[in-house]
Design brief:
By secondary structure, the chain is α+β, with helices and mostly antiparallel strands. It contains two helices and four strands; from the N terminus they run βαββαβ.
């Protein structure tokens, strides 16, 4: 199993991770705002994640962590 964790305090909502994900696991939040006033990325379909880490490699703020069991 793969777990994606996003540090919402660091995320600036640029959406690069959302575009990089081949399985549409991530989306920008429509309801949450972080302390900086951005809509952070969030995991919308954890089960679909294949652990490719494209999102983590693409993130300019290193806000995404991928953990594999």
């Amino acid at each position: 199993m793969v777990k994606v964790t996003i540090n919402e305090l660091v995320c600036k909502g640029c959406g690069l991770c959302v575009r990089a994900c081949p399985k549409s696991v991530l989306a920008l939040s429509k309801t949450k705002l972080n302390a900086k006033g951005y809509h952070p990325a969030e995991v919308v379909d954890q089960a679909a994640c294949i652990g490719c880490a494209s999102c983590a490699r693409t993130c300019p703020d290193v806000a995404i962590r991928i953990e594999k069991d």
